[in-house]
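Task card 7
Instruction: Convert sequence to structure tokens.
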Amino acid sequence: MPPPSSLPATPAGAALLLLLLPDGEAGRAAPVRAAIRALQARLGTAIRVLPIDEVTHPIVMRSFGLPTLPASVLMREGLELWRQPGFPTGELTITTLLALARMG
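Output:
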């Protein structure tokens, strides 16, 4: 996971897909990084994928009260639009995420 200073700015009102990961190493493992890049490519510029791990951001993780990790949460301007356990996969899920991101 790149340091926060190297992440591109997110436009106001943009949707964020938080990928909540179980530990600090999860976002650094090659298969996880590849899955995150592939997911971002599928979502394009409509949704920014942001991996968050419980070691680096424990308060953020606790604020969601998730029973299991990994988990995915779609947010816009501090409001939760969607959540599910695990990584988003499958065309229906991607289509749903993109539709929710387009809603104002």
